[in-house]
């Protein structure tokens, strides 16, 4: 602790002016980050892109429609950090795991 105090005591007036000028320049950024840190509420969530599924896709029962629905569900679970749901989806559809292994690495 004494070495830190001796360091600050050793600074001359010009160095203090530069330090204060730097802090003045950085203050808006620091203030913005502090406000974001302390004003974030529990219910606030990140903006996540919600996939759009049209009625035709929902009503189809063919294989490509099923794969598309699985991809949308898996992506949504992954974006919301629902790891248990992602693992269950992998269990149900093991053939579809390979394209998504790059996301889970």
Q: Which regions are unreliable across 5 or more consecutive residues at pLDDT < 50?
A: none
The 3D shape can be described as elongated
Q: Give the biggest sheet.
A: none
**How many beta-strand segments?**
0
Helix content: 55-70%
Helix-strand string: HHHHHH
Number of helices: 6
Distance from first to last alpha carbon? 44 Å
Question: Would you give an account of this structure?
Answer:
With 105 residues, the chain is mainly α. It is 68% helix and 0% strand. It has helices at 2-9, 13-39, 55-59, 63-79, 83-92, 101-104. The protein starts with a helix and ends with a helix.
Concise structural overview:
By secondary structure, this protein is mainly alpha-helical. It is 68% helix and 0% strand.
Give a quick set of tags describing it:
single chain, 105 residues, mainly alpha, 6 helices
Layout of helices and strands:
Elements lengths: L1 H8 L3 H27 L15 H5 L3 H17 L3 H10 L8 H4 L1
Helix pairs in contact: 4-5
């Amino acid at each position: 602790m004494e070495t830190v105090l001796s360091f600050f005591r050793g600074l001359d007036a010009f160095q203090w002016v530069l330090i204060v000028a730097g802090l003045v320049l950085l203050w808006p950024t620091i203030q913005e980050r502090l406000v974001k840190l302390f004003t974030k509420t529990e219910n606030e969530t990140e903006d996540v892109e919600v996939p759009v599924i049209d009625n035709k896709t929902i009503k189809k029962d063919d294989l490509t429609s099923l794969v598309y629905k699985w991809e949308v569900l898996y992506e949504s679970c992954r974006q919301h950090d629902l790891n248990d749901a992602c693992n269950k989806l992998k269990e149900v559809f093991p053939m579809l795991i390979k394209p998504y292994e790059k996301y889970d690495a």
